Automatic annotation (TrEMBL):
Keywords: Cell membrane, Membrane, Protein transport, Translocation, Transmembrane, Transmembrane helix, Transport
Membrane topology summary: Single-pass membrane protein
InterPro entries: Preprotein_translocase_YajC
Keyword Protein transport: yes
Function: The SecYEG-SecDF-YajC-YidC holo-translocon (HTL) protein secretase/insertase is a supercomplex required for protein secretion, insertion of proteins into membranes, and assembly of membrane protein complexes. While the SecYEG complex is essential for assembly of a number of proteins and complexes, the SecDF-YajC-YidC subcomplex facilitates these functions.
Official protein name in the record: Sec translocon accessory complex subunit YajC
Membrane-spanning segments: 6-22
Alphabetical list of SMART domains matching this protein: YajC
Top-rank taxon, per record: Bacteria
Organism for this UniProt entry: Seohaeicola saemankumensis
UniProt family annotation: Belongs to the YajC family.
Record flagged with keyword DNA damage: no
Length: 93
């Protein structure tokens, strides 16, 4: 019984760490993955490097083409998109 009593503080510390650090981090990661998956042509984005541009083409599962200025396009890995500033509305059918 005394051995179990010695592990109670350790178990409590792990539970607090899970609730305060691990769980919110997992939630934030899922939100970021959903944002990246929803990227479409015409969305204005900010990359983790601080570049602001408009998505001109979604190439494949891992990269997009971003227009930074007129006739200046760069290829960007999707996971480096930090924020979507404005979303385009889907085309009416």
């Amino acid at each position: 019984m005394e051995a179990f009593a010695q592990f109670i503080p350790l178990i409590l510390i792990f539970a607090i760490m899970y609730l305060l650090l691990i769980r919110p981090q997992q939630k934030k990661l899922k939100e970021h993955q959903a944002m990246v998956a929803a990227l479409r042509r015409g969305d204005q984005i900010i990359t983790q490097g601080g570049l602001i541009g408009k998505v001109s083409k979604v190439k494949d599962d891992n990269e997009i083409e971003v227009e930074l200025a007129e006739n200046v396009k760069v290829r960007v890995v999707k996971s480096t998109v930090a924020q979507v500033i404005s979303k385009t509305e889907p085309a009416a059918s």
